[in-house]
Amino acid sequence: MGSGAPPESEPPAVAAARKLHHLLRSRDLRPALSYLRTLPSPFTLLPNHALNALLRALAAAGRVRAATSLFRSIPVPTPHSFNSLLAALLRRGRRRAASALLAVFLRSRDASPDVTTLNTLLHGFSTASPRPSAATLLKLFRFLPETYAFAADAITYNSLLSALCRAGDLATARKLFDGIRVSEEGSKSVAFPNVITYTTMIRAYCAKGLADEALALFKVMVANGVPPNRITYNTMVQGFCEAGRMELVKEVFEVDSFKPDTCTFNTLMAAHCSEGRIEDAMKVFDQMTELHVRRDSASYSMVIRALCENGEFGQAEELVDEILEKEVLKKRGGSVPLVAAYNPVFVYFCENGKAKKARMLFGQLLDRRSKVDFHAFKTLILGHCKEGNFEEAYELVLSMLKRDLVPDSECYIAVIDGFMQKGRMKSAWEALHRMLNSGLRPSTSTFHSVLLGLLKKDGCAKEAADLIEIMLERKIRQNVDLSTNLIDVLFKSDLNDRAYKITKRLYDNGYYIKMEKLITTLCDDKKFIDAAEFTLFSLQKHHELSVAVHSLVLDGLCMNGRASEAFQLFYELIENGSTSAVAAPRSLVLLHHALEEAGKMKEADFVGKQMRRATSRIRQRS
């Protein structure tokens, strides 16, 4: 037997636990859950430590429903497992479920919440919505340690302090802060307040605009030997800038231990830009290079936007060139840039024939998964159309749709018109189709323009037919010339069935086509059977045709060996027509002759009688 194999005499519970622990090493918990379902009475068979390990794994993976169900089934859930599930619920904002879980846990005879439980609750409740009151937080802070005999630690105090500040109760937070002292725990000393405590309180003062109180507390912090960290300094710089207390910002910069970073300079530049102090913002921007502080995307976007708003587009473009050259936006770290921050420079580029450069900048922003912006997309689409780059404009339209943004009518029409100018009718039709699918309704003239372009373009008959059917579905007014041309194009493209179908739909919807023109064209193309079908269709629709058209169709059928079809048409014309002649005399002579040659003597006699009647009527009139 190999050294890694379990002994043959290993009890089933130990073997099952070993297998479950092995499966839990994977990030995919499905095998572990599947294995659990194969066990007979798993909650009896498996030892407590194995079930608790599964519970913690489910909680860590965010499977809170499965974890909660397992928690209620485990005979003795450990505090560690409970805390893991509690934290998972609170991370997802499920405060009510977390409270219910806590109540169940505390009712258990073996309940033993610890300091981690308290810290988890304080942090989770303080970030939940709605936030609990200060009184509720303090009650929780006192109840658990007193009831279950454990001591609060540094994390507890800092969590409570942060929760009170978030709740907006600055007075109670300050009382707690002032009450923190050095406590002894055996031989181990835990010093309060620490850098987190001071920074939390300073942030609260800054949020309330109490800049002087924040600076005073900072001085106490330094005097008490608690070294501020980067977050402390940047919190004060931001708070003082937002309060308009730039003299206090200067005091912070004079502290020897302060080493400003990218966040610091960005905060300063934002303050200067918001007050219109562009020159001061640019000085700060230049100082970053002098002090070897890295400029990130936010550094550039702030000053570029400010320069554009101040009309200094040349300088803004120089910075964009620097961004593209150094690939600043491609560098990870720092905040994700906002596309909207670059909108002014996009407008400038697109209005001045530099849409390509705008697209390069925009592409790098999208690569950083920046929050997409409708106005930026629209500016670039219209800019590319203005420069005749309609393919790139359409790619931007598709990019918008992939990101669940809907281009407006102006974007679509600019692309559609551009494709039509270039003679790219299939692309124009595709763009129009996407416009319709976006829930937008173009003008009737746009429909007609695209349809006309498709009809003029070889190989676009199917697309033209699709378009006119959509127009009928959407109750778009038809143009009789375009409708007639479409049917003609469909026949020329050997799409006869489609031609008949669309003709019927047109008439069913109250429209019509120029039948005499169409039938004449069909005869010119030697499509006499189709010409006959449309003649009969006109008869059914009470659409009167001229004798010349009747004669043209009859002559064509006769001369092409279709005497039977010619006779059938003639008969229908006689039966449904008026008392006047339905065809020219020479056409009747031709029909009579064709029938005799085909051996259709009965039909020829019928035509002969009609000829004699026609002759008799002519004599009577004269």
TrEMBL record:
Q: Does the keyword ATP-binding apply?
A: no
- Keywords, in A-Z order: Repeat, Transit peptide
Q: InterPro entries, from UniProt? A: Mito_RNA_Proc_CCM1, PPR_rpt, TPR-like_helical_dom_sf
- What is a single Pfam family found in this protein's UniProt entry? PPR_1
What ranges cover the PPR repeats?
153-183, 194-228, 261-295, 296-330, 373-407, 408-442, 546-580
Domain of life from the UniProt record? Eukaryota
| Record's signal peptide | none
Answer whether the UniProt record assigns the keyword Transit peptide to this protein.
yes
NCBIfam families, A to Z: PPR (TIGR00756)
Q: What is this protein called?
A: Pentatricopeptide repeat-containing protein
> Organism, per UniProt?
Urochloa decumbens
